[in-house]
TrEMBL record:
UniProt KW Repeat keyword: yes
Pfam families named in the record: WD40 (PF00400)
Alphabetized InterPro entries for the sequence: CstF1-like, WD40/YVTN_repeat-like_dom_sf, WD40_repeat_CS, WD40_repeat_dom_sf, WD40_rpt
Protein name according to UniProt: Cleavage stimulation factor 50 kDa subunit
BP GO annotations: mRNA 3'-end processing
Molecular function GO labels: RNA binding
Protein origin, superkingdom: Eukaryota
Source organism: Panagrolaimus superbus
Lineage: Eukaryota, Metazoa, Ecdysozoa, Nematoda, Chromadorea
Length: 213
């Protein structure tokens, strides 16, 4: 049976690869031996396809987001699920899930352009970033991301064609930035070290943005 690869994440140590295919089961590969591993407990797995995965910088944890609307936290050594945010966006499919640098929080995006910040220690949403203009469900909505110093959360909005920005700690909405694309943006990546990001759109263009300091 042929399955599409939807997302992957390389272990910070370089020896393992987490792979999400069009299937609920998350797979861990040893890059050197190509051996595949899955959690020993089937109940750990999602109920629908996993669409995004990410390792924490310290490699102790990984996070996955699924079309089933759940976000799961995985132990980076045992590959067992240790925490679940059930129906994280009120059951809407998840578009992306990313750790903060200190691995104490997870930023998630729903396919309805909703964005939330979750605290791992309390298993609750502590900030909901509202006001993005997207409406309804979209199979290919763009992911939200922190800027390089994690002071802001950013999300390209399909409806307005602009970049939505919020103060990460308070959720206060900032001024929109027109991105200049003529079709919906499908991917968005911000640099981890400088005020720069790239947008990729269905208009067959990629745009690079950089703020001079």
């Amino acid at each position: 049976m042929f399955l599409y690869v939807l997302a992957f994440a390389v272990h910070p140590g370089g020896e393992f690869l987490l792979v999400a295919v069009d299937h609920p089961t998350l797979r861990l590969y040893n890059i050197e031996t190509q051996q595949c591993y899955v959690s020993s407990n089937p109940a750990d797995q999602h109920e629908r396809a996993v669409v995004d995965i990410c390792y924490a910088d310290n490699a102790k944890l990984a996070v996955s987001g699924s079309l089933d609307g759940d976000v799961k936290i995985w132990d980076g050594i045992s590959n067992r699920c240790v925490q679940t945010f059930t129906r994280a966006h009120d059951g809407i499919p998840i578009r992306s899930a990313k750790f903060t640098r200190n691995a104490k929080y997870v930023l998630t995006t729903g396919t309805d352009c909703s964005v939330k910040l979750w605290e791992l220690s309390t298993n609750r949403c502590i900030v909901a970033y509202t006001g993005a203009g997207g409406s309804g469900y979209s199979d290919y909505s763009a992911p939200a991301s922190f800027n390089h110093n994690e002071d802001y959360v950013l999300l390209p909005d399909d409806k307005s064609g602009s970049l939505c920005t919020w103060a990460s700690r308070t959720g206060d909405r900032k001024r929109l930035l027109a991105l200049g694309h003529t079709a919906p943006i499908r991917d968005f990546v911000h640099s981890k070290t400088s005020p720069a990001f790239i947008t990729c759109s269905e208009d067959c263009k990629a745009r690079f943005w950089y703020k001079k300091l």
